[in-house]
Amino acid sequence: MTMITDYRKATRRNEMILGGAVALVVVLAVVAVTLLITMRDDPELPPDDAEDARELTADTCAAGVRQPAWVPDSVMRAAVACPEDISRRVGDSTSPDRLGTWIVYDLHGAPNEETVPGAAPGSWPDAEVESGAIRPATTITYVAYPGSEQLGPELGGETIEVAWMDFPEGGGDARVTRVENNGYGPVRVEWTDDAGSYLLLTVLGRTPEGRSGVEVEELLRMAGSLAG
Amino acid sequence: MVSTRTWLQVGGGVVVAALVTAAFLQGRVAEDTWTANDPVGECGTGALGGEIGHDSGGEVLAIQNVLSATHSLGPADSTWDADTDKAVRAFQAWTGLPVDGCVNTNTWVTMRALVVPVCAPEYNCQGPDQLLHWGPARDSRDAWFLDANCDWASWVLPGVAQSPVASRTPYEFSREPLSELRCEG
Q1: Nearest chain B CA: its distance from A170 CA (Å)
Q2: For residues B179 and B108, what is the distance between their CA atoms, to the nearest angstrom?
Q3: Contact, B171 vs B65, CB < 8 A?
Q4: Are A36 and A67 in contact (CB under 8 A)?
Q5: Based on the domain organization, do A6 and A78 belong to the same domain?
Q6: Using only C-alpha atoms, what is the Rg of chain B?
Q7: Which domain holds residue A2?
Q8: Could you identify which of A63, A132, A227, B71 might form a hypothetical disulfide with B87, taking C-beta atoms 3.0 to 4.6 angstroms apart as the criterion?
Q9: Does residue A101 share a domain with residue A27?
Q10: Is B144 in contact with A90 (CB distance < 8 Å)?
Q11: Angle at which helices B58-70 and B82-94 pack, to 10 degrees?
Q12: C-alpha span between B122 and A159 (Å, rounded)
């Protein structure tokens, strides 16, 4: 039996292959361009599912207080102390309406965990003490003083560095006070706006493996994200 | 007509008054930033062989108060001991300071930077108005201070204070003996 090839079918097959190849090239080009654009834009844009950090204090007395809407990824939870709590702790000697509201953010990760033993310090091993292995939890403390537009006095000392720095995403600046202990030490960020004055405090701590805490840039971004 | 001598006397008086005022203000700033505090602890010996660091009194109590919040040190009795020494060293290591057990100016300043006013800056709170609040958020520890017109004072919580230190009492940042803060005027 003789096989006869219909040339019209062969031509159609070639056209389909060519069309498919062109479509594939176009799809690949679109995907590549999209990926390039996304990769270039990612550092600038927050992820779509980024939550408002104010949700960490929802259902607390700080819910209506101006506070950071953005916090570093390492923040895992927050605890709140309101003026009434603070006043009670010191025996109600101060009127709550002049006191600040405190939000303390806990940070993820082994370097930020509390490692202070329950035993008396005299029994702590020297090697652990000297390496920075025994340290308190690293936190970020935020205090809002409503109705106040002043900053507290500037700290001074040989190891103190004070600088006014802009918020990374614009909208203002803050006084940054660093105690410069060989790259470690406390950091205070203080600023004001029309509604009040504010403070962020943390410690860039030394650990046996390196450092605990967050970058100064992240504190400034927190400061610049104030809302409420 | 005013004589040259009178002008000189007036000018001299103004200069002296300015110098006294500047010295006072500088002293007050030094107190605020804790840079005026004395060395405490293992600070070696001086030229005459005496110990440089103090080992009891209000400044030791202030350090113990700080360390009660950061490193769970207790009790606070205003006397330097092995527990205080070890906790100071752990504090120094954590904050990047040389680990030597001597609370000199740099360690004082580092401790000061952790203390935060509880009251808005333009208000004058009654009682303790400065708080060192540290530790995990849900199990944090407090150390209270009072920034009075004349000096700072420690204000130690019950459960941390131990005789001769009484809780909820303002103790000045003195060398020795331990004394309550009393500002004149």
Answers
A1: 25
A2: 20
A3: no
A4: no
A5: no
A6: 20
A7: 1-45
A8: B71
A9: no
A10: yes
A11: 60
A12: 27
Whether A209 and A160 map to the same domain: the answer is yes
Which of B72, B113, B126 shows the shortest C-beta gap to A94?
B126
Q: Which of A91, A98, A157 sits opposite B119 (nearest CB)?
A: A98
Q: What is the residue-level pLDDT of chain A in tens, covering all 228 positions?
A: 555 556 666 666 677 777 778 778 877 877 676 655 545 444 333 344 458 999 999 999 999 999 999 999 999 999 999 999 888 887 766 778 889 999 999 999 999 999 999 999 999 999 999 999 999 999 999 999 988 888 999 999 999 999 999 999 999 999 999 999 999 999 999 999 999 999 999 999 999 999 999 999 999 999 999 998
User: Which residues of chain A neighbour B84 with C-beta distances below 8 Å?
Assistant: 121
User: B51-172 adopts what CATH topology?
Assistant: Muramoyl-pentapeptide Carboxypeptidase; domain 1 (1.10.101)
Residues A102 and A154 in one domain: yes
Identify whether the C-beta of residue A192 lies closer than 8 Å to the C-beta of residue A149.
Answer: yes
CB atoms under 10 Å from CB of B78, counted, come to: 28
A170 CB within 8 Å of a chain B CB: no
The verdict on A57 and A114 lying in the same domain is yes
Question: Which SS3 state, helix, strand or coil, does residue A85 take?
Answer: helix
Type of residue numbered A124 = W
Number of domains in chain A: 2
Q: For chain B, say whether A43 makes contact (Cβ under 8 Å).
A: no
Q: At what angle do helices B82-94 and B105-112 cross, to 10 degrees?
A: 70
Length of chain A: 228
What are the DSSP calls for B8-48, one per residue?
A: HHHHHHHHHHHHHHHHHHHHHHHHHTTTTSPPEES--B-TT
In one-letter notation, the amino acid at residue B76 is: A
- Tokens of residue B91, six digits: 């504090």
